[in-house]
Write a structure and sequence with these properties.
Elements (H helix, E strand, L loop, with lengths): L6 E11 L3 H11 L5 E6 L1 E3 L2 E3 L11 E8 L1 H17 L3 E9 L8
Antiparallel strand pairs: 1-5, 1-6, 2-5, 3-4
Length: 108
């Protein structure tokens, strides 16, 4: 059996309102992120109180989370791209260390 090789990456968990999904995915695409996962209809409690994950009027009126695994050198440029956005809108970006087994899926 082939031995698994683990490689260090950073995981970004980007939470924002669904109406801003295109802004976030465009930023990630332009930064060179190879892929991401989008989770819709989040529920949770933050500084603005509790937010239910049900559809209110449309899919843009709910919170979403975009998850991406990126090389460390992309983290700061991506966060700098989100900084002006988060000065005007609610949401957050979580950054954590992860290990992946198929590095080619996440890097050029």
């Amino acid at each position: 059996m082939k031995e698994l090789n683990f490689n260090q990456l950073k995981k970004l968990e980007i939470i924002l309102e669904g109406e801003h999904q295109e802004f976030a995915t465009d930023l990630l695409d332009h930064a060179g992120v190879k892929g991401y996962t989008i989770i819709n209809n989040l529920s949770g409690k933050g500084s603005h109180g509790f937010h239910g994950g049900h559809l209110m009027f449309n899919e843009e009126a709910v919170l979403i989370m975009i998850i991406a695994a990126v090389p460390e050198e992309l983290v700061n440029p991506i966060l700098e791209g989100f900084a002006p956005f988060y000065n005007k809108h609610s949401g957050v970006v979580f950054v954590s260390d992860i290990q992946v087994t198929r590095l080619v899926k996440f890097t050029s």
